[in-house]
Amino acid sequence: MTTPPPSTDRMPFGATRRVSLALVALAALCLWLGDFEISAHDPWQELGRLALGLVRPDFGAVDALGEALLRTVAFAFVGVGVGASAGLLLALCFHRLWVRTGCAFVRAIHELFWALIFLQCFGLHPLTGVLAIAIPYAGIFAKVYAEILDETDPAPARTLPQRTGRLSALLYTRISQAWPHLVSYTAYRLECGLRSSAVLGFVGMPTLGFHLASHFAQGHYAVVGALLLLFYALIASLRLWVRPKLLPFYLLAAPFCLGTGLPILWSNVARFFTQDIVPAPLRNGEGLAGLGPWLGDLLLHQALPGIWNTLLLSQIALVLTGVLAMALFPLISHHFTGRHLTGRLGAGLGHGLLVVLRSTPEYLLAFILLQLWGPSMLPAVVALALHNGGIIAHLVGRRSNQIVLRPDAPRGLERYAYEVAPRVYGPFMALLFYRWEIIMRETAILGILGIATLGFYVDSAIQEIRFDRALVLILITAALNIGVDILARRLRAHLRLRHTINRQSC
């Protein structure tokens, strides 16, 4: 029997190992500087009560459950539909610098930040929730759609008659080739839209998150368990009830299921954009002379502490995400579960665990852990690591199933350490860097829960009706996210991490 040639999946560990060790060392330093104290009176008792609520949920005690589910689905469909339509148009001109820059900016701001902005303009109106989802999703769709269209084969376009119009050429060449990939990614974004829609309830929109927050505050863990199980069922059954033939019906019906909300006062909208967001020194007639001290005070006492804590927390969450992903991916890898009945059962349970982890929004998970453990960085770090670790573990596990091992390959820990892990480490690092900017976005927004990241100061400024300060802090958050995204892309290029990245990791 001939020995198989060396696998091309293996990669040199020189630079990658140095970068990995540097990230771990930096996270260890951040861990020493951070606040991870559990201040709750009896956290394990609270955790046990929540677990009991999941085991014995009380579906009958949930008021307006059907309406909350309907609104959650409706906001997701309308927001994702508008975002996908705008994203496709932007993707066609994504080669222009101003389009790429604008899309990078809007997707760098989290949906909850957009919701907080539009709440000041439109109040608790359905337009607030729709725009909060549609605007950042348009930026994401534009980037990914442009990548998908750029990867199409240019040969069919050369065979068209010379007088073929641009729209016809686009439809019959690039879009026709890319259509399956466009549909697949849009379906994934709909799942993300359901999570975003649920989280909008934490800022007052009538979705599942609103009921979850109110019942958790009252200690009704059986109702909380019912809401969580319904949310997981909604995500898990997405492929069963979202059929291509039914999509036009859903998209037409969804706007009528958003509700009416409070009427929009257009005078408030005009005042917000013409007065409220104008820096106070300019609004009060102090001119540029007063703008410097105002901006310096904002940077010194809010922006810099917020940036420090955001970077601190996201660095720890990034490394912990990587540790969890490398520890959990064997749960769905047939190289470790095997193909026999027991192995398939274990793989099914592992797949279910990863589905729950990646389906639970970080904000929702951090909110639950914050109630159980008290205010500190610990709930945020754990929430970010569990969610993102579940996503990367799922993708790395699927990648590992493509590896063919030699017949005499070792088993157990040696198989993991010497055969599988080295071959998936390149794609794993690429995915980890790909999620870095997303982890940063979520870290900033978790400040709304009371953790002193940039979101905490944004929310405080809004509560104090200082919208000018809130806008500056949101712009700083966007700039920070864009900077981390640029750094991650350069690291991927430096380490030559050119492995195919599943677009669902966007």
TrEMBL record:
What GO cellular component entries does it have?
plasma membrane
How the protein sits in the membrane?
Answer: Multi-pass membrane protein
Where does the protein end up? Cell membrane
Per the record, the domain of life is: Bacteria
Keyword hit for Transcription regulation: no
Tell me the InterPro entries matching this sequence: MetI-like_sf (IPR035906)
| Keywords, ordered alphabetically | Cell membrane, Membrane, Transmembrane, Transmembrane helix, Transport
The UniProt entry lists the main location of this chain as membrane
For this protein, the parts annotated as crossing the membrane are: 68-92, 112-135, 221-242, 249-266, 307-329, 438-458, 470-488
Specify the protein name: ABC transporter permease
Its source organism is: Bisbaumannia pacifica
